[in-house]
């Protein structure tokens, strides 16, 4: 009798172990899916962090670009002012040169 009971117990244990193994396979699959989802969440978090860093870089570069554009406009205005000043000085130089030529001509004619 003990032998039969032991066989039944062994069969029951084998069946139980088989069911546990099958259910463990299912849980193992869910566990792997959970691990993959966790990895995906980490990757997405990294992507969000990189995006925020890139947005800060873009914001800083846009600000520098706007500053450079304002500086460019200011410098163009300054260049235009200096060109006008140079033309005025050239006109003065031409007038002085013409007056000197006229004065030398008068002195030579005397």
What is shown here, in short?
The protein has 110 residues and is mainly alpha-helical.
Strand residue content: under 5%
Mean pLDDT over the full residue set = 83
Q: Would you count the extended β strands for me?
A: 0
Q: What is the global morphology?
A: rod-shaped
Helical amount among residues, as a percent range? Answer: over 70%
Gyration radius over CA: 46 Å
Summed up, the helix count is 1
Distance between the termini: 158 Å
pLDDT below 50 for ≥5 consecutive residues: which ranges? 1-8
Sketch the topology as an H/E string, one letter per element. H
Can you describe what's shown?
The protein has 110 residues and is mainly α. 98% of the residues lie in helices and 0% in strands. The chain is built from 1 helix and no strands. The longest helix has 108 residues, at 2-109.
SSE layout and pairing:
Layout: H1 2-109
Protein name: TPM-like protein
Keywords: Coiled coil
Coiled coil: 65-99
Keywords:
single chain; 110 residues; mainly alpha; TPM-like protein; coiled coil
């Amino acid at each position: 009798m003990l032998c039969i009971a032991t066989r039944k117990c062994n069969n029951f244990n084998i069946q139980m172990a088989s069911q546990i193994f099958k259910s463990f396979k299912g849980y193992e699959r869910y566990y792997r899916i959970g691990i993959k989802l966790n990895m995906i969440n980490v990757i997405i978090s990294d992507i969000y962090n990189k995006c925020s860093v890139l947005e800060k870089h873009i914001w800083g570069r846009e600000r520098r670009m706007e500053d450079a554009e304002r500086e460019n406009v200011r410098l163009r205005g300054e260049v235009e002012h200096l060109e006008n000043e140079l033309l005025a000085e050239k006109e003065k130089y031409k007038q002085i040169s013409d007056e000197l030529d006229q004065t030398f001509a008068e002195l030579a004619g005397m």
